[in-house]
Write a structure and sequence with these properties.
This protein has 326 residues and is α/β, with parallel strands linked by helices. The chain is built from twelve helices and 13 strands. Bound molecules: S-adenosylmethionine (SAM) and iron/sulfur cluster. Iron/sulfur cluster binds next to loops.
């Protein structure tokens, strides 16, 4: 098992399959971003080797992310191979949904269990301006395909920005009245390329909740007010879905953190909002043994930072969000 020096058991790995993306969300990456050449990214066999090593260290939960994980060539076969690694108990994906209508069925058959979609507005024009290129219809088709494929429960993640979509949270929350979905509102975080946006547009979960309650009245608290993963859950009375708030900035949940991340170029990122990383790909390509790689992982996890230091003005600037894997 892997523990950090604060006694937190770490057993959840988010793997970025690529830094490439078919959208350019304003809060995530600059419009003219240059993606890394494929040769610098982990190849399938390298990812699978690391997955086996993490399982050997007690990891049970894996989420595929990016960039946009569905643009990776051969993603279905990779998921099939990962799902068949003994010890992988939970395998899910986070996607913008653009390509999901044709991938949902094959991914579910390959062993994918759940999917989180990112959708920040229901307005097709605003969707285009926030993603700088997307067609919202493609996302709806992706969500419908995921439901048909049994990838439940569907979760929808919305990053909220004051002057783009703060008022849109009312319509997004309305989705939960008729759909058994969990719509989760995420506080925007600052990274390289999004710091100015964050300073100008960041809003807190409490402010988002106030906008929703001004339309639907007081939300009912679920789960006795305790965190469910990283979200605090609520419900519009009598609705069939749930509303979650992920208050990473204003109410950090570092004490209950169980996760680390693997960037597409094979670095172990110990905390989303801290720059510290451990390179696993270079040693692997230089011939490191399983034993040596295991040691690097364990040592890195032991040194996982307690949490972010945004309140002290420490912003992680070494990568954009899309290069870390949200
Ligand atoms: N492309 C996929 C997607 O958009 O779902 C997966 C990768 S994306 C980096 C993962 C999540 O990070 C998405 O839900 C996205 O909205 C969120 N995200 C990106 N930039 C963010 C930021 N600056 N603050 C908070 N969340 C952010
Ligand atoms: Fe691409 Fe996801 Fe970043 Fe949007 S949030 S640009 S879809 S990686």
């Amino acid at each position: 098992m892997a523990f950090d020096r604060y006694g937190r058991r770490i057993n959840y790995l988010r793997i970025s399959l690529t830094d490439h993306c078919n959208l350019r969300c304003v809060y995530c990456m600059p419009e003219d971003i240059r993606f890394q050449p494929n040769a610098e990214l982990m190849q399938d066999a390298e990812i699978l080797r690391l997955v086996r090593l993490f399982v050997g260290l007690g990891f049970v939960k894996f989420r595929l992310t990016g960039g946009e994980p569905t643009v990776r060539a051969g993603v279905v076969e990779l998921v099939r191979a990962m799902a068949s690694v003994p010890g992988v108990r939970s395998l899910s994906i986070t996607t913008n949904g653009i390509l999901f209508s044709r991938l949902a069925g094959p991914l579910a058959q390959a062993g994918l269990q759940r999917v989180n979609f990112s959708l920040d507005t229901l307005d097709p024009f605003k969707f285009q301006s926030m993603t700088r290129r997307g067609e919202i219809e493609d996302v709806w088709e992706g969500i419908a395909a995921a439901e048909r494929a049994g990838l439940a429960p569907i979760k929808i993640n919305s990053v909220v920005m004051r002057y783009y979509n703060l008022q849109d949270v009312v319509e997004l929350a309305r989705l939960t009245i008729e759909h058994p979905w969990q719509v989760r509102f995420i506080e925007m975080m600052p990274f390289a390329s999004s710091t100015d946006f964050w300073l100008d547009q960041g809003v807190t979960a409490e402010q988002i909740k106030t906008v929703i309650e001004s339309e639907y009245g007081a939300l009912e608290s679920l789960n006795d007010g305790n965190l469910d993963g990283e979200a605090r859950l609520f419900r519009i009375p009598k609705s069939c879905g749930e509303i979650g708030f992920i208050a990473t900035v204003s109410q950090p949940f570092c004490a209950s953190c169980t996760r680390v991340r693997l960037t597409a170029d094979g670095r172990l990122r110990l905390c989303l909002l801290r720059e510290k990383e451990v390179d696993l790909l270079r040693p692997m390509r230089a011939g490191a043994s399983d034993q040596e790689l295991r040691h690097l992982i364990q040592q890195g996890i032991w040194e996982k930072p307690w949490g972010h230091q945004l309140a002290k003005g420490e912003i992680p600037l070494n990568r954009a969000m899309s290069q870390i894997g949200g």
